[in-house]
Amino acid sequence: MVEEARAGEALFRPVRTGNPFEETVERLLQAIKLGVVGPGERLPAERDLAARLNVSRVTLREAIRALTEAGYVESRRGRYGGTFVNERLPRPRRVGPKKLARELADSHANGGGLEDALVLRSALEVGAAEAAASRSLSGGERDHLLRCLADTATAKLADYRRMDSRLHLAVAEVSGSPSLTSAVADVRMRLNTLLDAIPLLEPNIEHSDQQHQAVVDAILAADPEAARQAMHEHLAGTAALLRAFLS
């Protein structure tokens, strides 16, 4: 589909020359963890993927081997073979709030930390929602956004973070900017490390689903100000929870 190809273009962009193996692993994990390639789905063909990442097929195979050993993908032979995302993905590393708070304090001393991540996320995602609502979306883009919204609203608890990530990435995708999509993917991976340290709360999930609906409704109604406000309100709720648990 056009929208899935757009996500692939953003995440499977050429890696920098300094650390091709490490960055190839990073790009593949982004695509898996953010739901661009879901459980049971196949990664792009090796030749195509190596060309898109601008790495050798040897480097790509080494990265795939590493993800296979880590439990994220499996390779299948035959006519319908290829590299497939495992149906059951490894659980994210759980870091206790107190330990993560100490790590964040150290990061803050070096220019990073919780507030840095939250400010960056707000700037990117609020802008993405506004940009998406400012465009005339194609039928495929509208369907893609609605499908990601429905997948999030009906996700099982164990899949909620991934589906939530996919929806937020979809908003960036329909902004029409691959560079913005790449930036949102990067900050979402960073944010998910923080979210994995706090519990999933049912009332918050229900509230988030309502806010997701408001964001998508505003985008589809081509109302940039409403989309901006709805996304700002949604991100503020997540930020409040993160501060409460991690500050």
- Which class of secondary structure composition applies to the elements? mainly alpha
The chain-level mean pLDDT equals 88
DSSP helical segment count: 11
User: What is the level 1 CATH name of the largest domain?
Assistant: Mainly Alpha
Q: Give the helices and strands as they follow along the chain.
A: HHHHEEHHHHHHH
Helical fraction: 55-70%
CATH homologous superfamily caption of the largest domain? GntR ligand-binding domain-like
The separation of the N and C termini measures 42 Å
Q: Can you summarize the main beta sheet?
A: 2 strands, antiparallel
**DSSP strand content:** under 5%
Low-confidence stretches: none
| Strands ordered across the widest β-sheet | 1-2
CATH T-level topology of the largest domain = Four Helix Bundle (Hemerythrin (Met), subunit A)
Q: Nearest-angstrom radius of gyration? A: 18 Å
Shape type: globular
Instruction: Work out the number of β strands.
Output: 2
Q: Under the CATH scheme, which architecture of the largest domain would be assigned?
A: Up-down Bundle
Quickly count the domains.
2
Keywords: DNA-binding, Transcription, Transcription regulation
InterPro entries: GntR_C, TF_FadR/GntR_C, Tscrpt_reg_HTH_GntR, WH-like_DNA-bd_sf, WH_DNA-bd_sf
Protein name: GntR domain protein
Organism: Kribbella flavida (strain DSM 17836 / JCM 10339 / NBRC 14399)
